[in-house]
Design brief:
By secondary structure, the chain is of the alpha+beta class. It is built from three helices and seven strands, in the order αβββββββαα.
């Protein structure tokens, strides 16, 4: 499994393993902590991964649950996104690709088409934006707003 290529779609297990490896790799690069945990109950496997920037106290969480067979999977990402495991079931038996579809939180994931398919670059982008790390658009917007506020306050005091 080559993580630099993204998230494999051969099995739900391999996709979740790749997501974990990508987040561990990014956490190490960014100097933040990664806390994964996986638990199984019957045919259901749940993996929750928390990535925490302890200096800013910001966190990113992805939780993925899948079962099989028949294969089904759902998840959440930082409370903003819902995920559903998309399964190729056009034949008599399920077969790859198994991909995680992204939906805005609150969307009925059974009937709506996904907004995105989760891949490695998108996962990295969501992590960085959620943690508001330097170099992300969200952190740049926040810094710009702070600068404007400081500038306006300074002008008002002059």
């Amino acid at each position: 499994m080559n993580i630099s290529k993204g998230i494999p779609d051969d099995t739900p297990e391999n996709s979740v393993k790749a997501i974990l490896e990508i987040l561990k790799e990014e956490a190490e690069l960014l100097g933040v902590k990664c806390y994964p945990k996986t638990y199984c109950e019957g045919a259901e496997t749940t993996t929750q991964i928390d990535v925490i920037d302890e200096t800013s106290n910001k966190s990113f969480r992805i939780k993925l649950t899948y079962t099989g067979p028949p294969t089904d999977g759902v998840g959440t990402m930082s409370g903003r996104w819902a995920l559903r495991l998309l399964v190729n079931d056009s034949s008599l038996r399920e077969s790859p690709p198994f991909r995680w579809g992204l939906y805005p939180g609150g969307t009925d994931t059974i009937y709506a088409p996904p907004v995105h398919i989760l891949d490695g670059p998108l996962l990295r982008k969501f992590l960085r934006r959620t943690l508001e790390l330097p170099g992300t658009r969200m952190s740049q917007d926040i810094n710009r707003s702070r600068e404007e506020l400081t500038s306006n306050t300074k002008d008002a005091n002059d």
